């Protein structure tokens, strides 16, 4: 087993080698090639002396047969991934994607779309908890990144348990509640392992934009009466979410992110936030529609409508890179349990919500503190 906690590199393992993992891994190499002044698209060029190019993948898990067994740098460009290849010429990583644990890590209806090249379940033997823990330990993994599909409740808890057993930090990028669950948070605190979560915010996506506008209404004295946020996309995340039974935590996460910054909480019938539909030809492009209705001075009505179009997976990668580097700082400092400042700024459903400007100040203080 390797001990890399004090090395210049940050060693991560990835669960779910999909579009988000693709953008993240491409980003490590893209920013290695950039001078600091040309490193646009990052919220922090350095955190604790670590740049985006100082991160490396040392282990990866997936359950799609077109990825299992491949070098991870090949697998990120394999079907059904369809995000932009902005750094396609990656060298071999010498890290093969291993067969993970299936559990609820995919929606059964996904099998109906095999003819569309969207999902093909591997028949390789599944990894046990002992298998995953051994890989994490032997590879020198410091931080485990969870990129499972929305609704993967059992699978997320399985990998969180593996992180605890292997003694690695855990960054939960999906809306399954680990950091915001008191029992799980305590388990990471007891092991003195950093935990960031839950449900990553995009760099400039639907939720952060909706939050900013809601906060603007509050600060400018505009009474918000009702609002909706509708999203469409063509990646497997949106295909997975056609199964509405998997959306309970996703809807809760996105709704609470907006409700938490409103001047007054809206009644349930006056706020609708959630994924809407799968449009295959959009691929990894996500289109968001926001409408807000309110009242100005004198009770005079107004409304705002916004359309936002973004490439979904690169939009989260820079935030994930900051999460990784903050988790590394915590490891170096011997700080375990929920990292509240990074969770509040980087995630939609942290254990405690803060306005984004306040959460940013908290993150900067976390980064600069000894």
Q: What tags apply to this protein structure?
A:
single chain; 370 residues; alpha/beta; seven-stranded parallel sheet; 19% strand; globular
Description:
The chain is α/β, with parallel strands linked by helices and 370 residues long. It is 33% helix and 19% strand. The chain is built from eleven helices and eleven strands. The strands form two sheets. A seven-stranded parallel sheet has the order 3-2-1-4-5-6-11, with helices on both faces. Strands 8-7-9-10 form a four-stranded mixed sheet. Helix 3 packs across helix 4, helix 6 (206-219) packs parallel to helix 8 (248-259) and helix 10 (340-346) crosses helix 11. It is globular, with a radius of gyration of 20 Å. 47% of the residues are buried. The model has no long low-confidence stretch (mean pLDDT 93).
Low-confidence stretches: none
Q: What is the count of β-strands?
A: 11
**SSE arrangement, N to C:** EHEHEHEHEHEHEHHEEEHEHH
* Strand order across the largest sheet: 3-2-1-4-5-6-11
Question: Which term fits the overall shape?
Answer: globular
**How helix-rich are the residues, as a percent range?**
25-40%
Strand content: 15-25%
Computed over alpha carbons, the radius of gyration is 20 Å
Number of alpha- plus pi-helical segments: 11
């Amino acid at each position: 087993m390797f001990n890399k906690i004090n090395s210049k590199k940050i060693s991560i393992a990835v669960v779910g080698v999909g579009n988000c993992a693709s953008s993240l891994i491409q980003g490590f190499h893209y920013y290695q090639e950039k001078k600091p002044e040309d490193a646009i698209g990052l919220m922090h060029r350095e955190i604790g002396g670590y740049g985006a190019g100082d991160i490396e993948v040392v282990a990866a898990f997936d359950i799609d047969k077109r990825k299992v067994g491949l070098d991870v740098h090949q697998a990120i460009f394999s079907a059904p991934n369809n995000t932009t290849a902005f750094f396609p010429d990656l060298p071999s990583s010498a890290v093969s994607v291993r067969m993970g644990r299936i559990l609820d890590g995919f929606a059964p209806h996904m099998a109906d779309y095999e003819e569309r090249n969207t999902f093909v379940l591997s028949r390789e033997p599944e990894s046990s908890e002992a298998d995953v823990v051994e890989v994490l330990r032997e590879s020198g993994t410091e931080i485990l990144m969870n990129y499972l599909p929305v609704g993967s409740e059992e699978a997320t808890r399985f990998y969180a348990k593996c992180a605890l057993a292997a003694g690695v930090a855990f960054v939960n990028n999906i809306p399954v509640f680990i950091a915001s669950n008191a029992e799980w948070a305590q388990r990471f605190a007891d092991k003195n392992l950093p935990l960031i979560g839950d449900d990553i915010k995009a760099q400039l996506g639907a939720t952060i934009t909706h939050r900013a506008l809601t906060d603007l209404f509050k600060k400018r004295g505009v009474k918000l009466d009702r609002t909706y946020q509708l999203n469409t996309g063509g990646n497997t995340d949106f295909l997975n979410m056609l199964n509405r039974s998997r959306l309970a935590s996703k809807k809760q996460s996105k709704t609470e992110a907006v409700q938490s910054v409103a001047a007054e909480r809206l009644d349930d019938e006056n706020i609708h936030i959630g994924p809407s539909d799968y449009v295959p030809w959009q691929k990894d492009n996500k289109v968001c529609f926001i409408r807000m209705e309110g009242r100005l001075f004198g009770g005079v009505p107004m409304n705002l409508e916004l359309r936002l179009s973004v490439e979904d997976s690169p939009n989260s990668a820079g935030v994930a890179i900051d999460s990784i580097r903050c988790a590394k700082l915590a490891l170096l400092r011997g700080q375990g349990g929920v990292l509240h400042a990074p969770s509040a700024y980087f995630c939609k459903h942290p254990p405690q919500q803060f306005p984004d400007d306040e959460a940013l100040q908290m993150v900067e203080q976390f980064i600069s503190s000894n």
